[in-house]
Amino acid sequence: MFGFITDVPCRIKNLFSKLKKFFSKPQYKNFCRTELGLMVAGDGEHDIKSVNELFIDRKDQSSLNRFITDPKWNIQAVANQAKTLLLSEANLGNSFEYKIIDDTVCRKYSQNTEMVCYNHSSTMGTVLSHDYVTSLYVNNGLVVPDGLKLYGNQKKCSEKGIEFKTRLQLACDIIDEHTPLVKKTIWLWDSWFTCQEMASKCRAHGYSWVGEIKSNRIVFYEEKRYRIDELFDKIRLEGGFFDVMVNGKLYQAFKVDVFMPKMGYFSIVMNVKAGTRDVHFLCTDMLGCSVEEILGHGLERHRIEDFYKEAKALGFGEYRFRESEAALIHAHLVALACILLDVLRRRLLKYSIVKSLPSIEATVEWVRRKAMHLFIHEIRNIKLSNKSILRLIDTK
Predict the structure, then answer these.
(1) Among the listed residues 89, 153, 143, the one whose alpha carbon sits nearest the alpha carbon of residue 305
(2) Pairing mode, strands 117-121 and 249-260
(3) With DSSP H G I counted as helix, E B as strand and the rest as coil, what are the percentages for the chain, rounded to 5?
(4) What is the predicted pLDDT for the residue at 105?
(5) What is the model's pLDDT at position 115?
(6) How far apart are CA 354 and CA 340, in angstroms?
(7) How far is Cα 191 from Cα 256, in angstroms, rounded to an integer?
């Protein structure tokens, strides 16, 4: 994508101004340039060099690099303020909130990059990468990224001189750090995180949880020992499944209360989407909830996959820093861009600029158009030859 940004569109400038107090004047200029660049950059163009090239008046790249590699500002304070801004734009429910935990890998190509190690990805296999343990806050359809921790194996942590923590320990830290906004918090995660440590941590804070569970886990049902897939087959043959409507979709499901060694008594919901062989097993400590309620909670976990898709479109993982601190700052800035775009799209609807709530992708296109309008206005007002104009925008 050629350099076309001449200024920050006014509605984006207004959003950025809400965070101005956290930066010095030079830092704020770098912040605005970086965030706007992350929003409008094309695929594979979200590293600092490519972001800088999107602007007509390119800065010395070393200044932008130092903004991330040697930050004199507090990323957590900025992220918290952005979260507060987004929460103020929505009508939050007061009955319960969700926190969703997962991890995602960002492929890297150099062993010299700090904290890179071989991690498993469901789409790429085992690859050299950074692995981020992340969390989302969800309330009444509002989704806010608010937890981001970089995992490294024991060797990499030793080289870095920091304490080694497993992914589970990082996830437990996220649980410890959560400040509830309503009375009931329900944590959601996939089968990798369904374990004694996570269940105990939630119990210690008075939180509830719903997690997927692997089919080969051992449970005791009616004083008999089963693998979960064996119990599924038994109940199916006995005709125990019944139809359940959740979010307008039909499922066949069944709930059983079981005992799991090392974990205790829990409810397991076995569900199959009607007309498919898509079988899922959900485990929860909410023994008194109905099948419909547990399944409804479990289905909310898709939101973190949606977030990963949006964040990676905005450059999550597209950095070339050797230092792990800089990589983490870049990742936080991408998450921040997601939050600010969500605020923007809600305001576009609120002020009747659009007729319905646009997607994050559509909001990105809106920002690009506004930036392009400013570019065209700038070109129209200058008196230069065509050759000079092409030199100005540098289309190489």
Answers:
(1) 143
(2) unpaired
(3) 45, 25, 30
(4) 95
(5) 96
(6) 17
(7) 18
Q: DSSP states of 75-126 as a string?
A: HHHHHHHHHHHHHTTS---SSEEEEEEEEEEEE---TTSTT-EEEEETTTEE
CA torsion, points 31, 36, 38, 41, in degrees to nearest 10?
A: -150
Asked if residues 41 and 315 have their Cβ atoms less than 8 Å apart, the reply is: yes
> DSSP labels for 84-96?
HHHHTTS---SSE
Structure-token pair, residue 340: 């600010």
Tell me the C-alpha distance between 60 and 207, whole Å: 49
In angstroms, the CA 121 to CA 287 distance is 33
Sign of the Cα torsion 20, 26, 27, 30 reads positive
R_g over Cα of the chain: 24
Q: Measuring CA to CA, which residue among 252, 264, 147, 241 is closest to residue 194?
A: 264
The neighbouring-strand residues paired with 97 are 185
Q: How far is it, in rounded angstroms, from Cα 269 to Cα 271?
A: 6
Provide the β-strand partners of residue 39.
none
With 0-12 CB in 10 A as exposed, 13-18 as middle and 19+ as buried, what is 112? Answer: exposed
Please report how the helices 324-350 and 360-381 are oriented relative to each other, as an axis angle in degrees rounded to 10: 90
Contacts of residue 318, defined as CB under 8 A and 6 or more positions apart, other chains included, come to 44, 45, 46, 47
- Residue 206 phi/psi, 5-degree rounding, is 80, 20
Q: Rounded to 5 degrees, what are φ and ψ at 384?
A: -135, 160
Strands 117-121, 208-212: pairing kind = unpaired
**pLDDT value at residue 394:** 54
Residues 57, 118 contacting (CB under 8 angstroms): no
As a whole number of angstroms, the distance between CA 274 and CA 51 comes to: 46
Per-residue pLDDT tens over the stretch 51-82 = 999 998 888 889 999 999 999 999 999 999 99
Amino acid at 24: S
pLDDT at 1: 57
Q: How many residues does the chain have?
A: 396
Q: Are 81 and 18 in contact (CB under 8 A)?
A: yes
Q: Say what the pLDDT of residue 395 is.
A: 46
Asked if residue 139 lies in contact with residue 92, where contact means CB atoms within 8 angstroms, the answer is yes
Tokens of 276: 């498919």
Residues of the chain with pLDDT under 50: 395-396
309 is written with which tokens?
Answer: 């898709």
Alpha carbon distance 45, 37 (integer Å) = 9
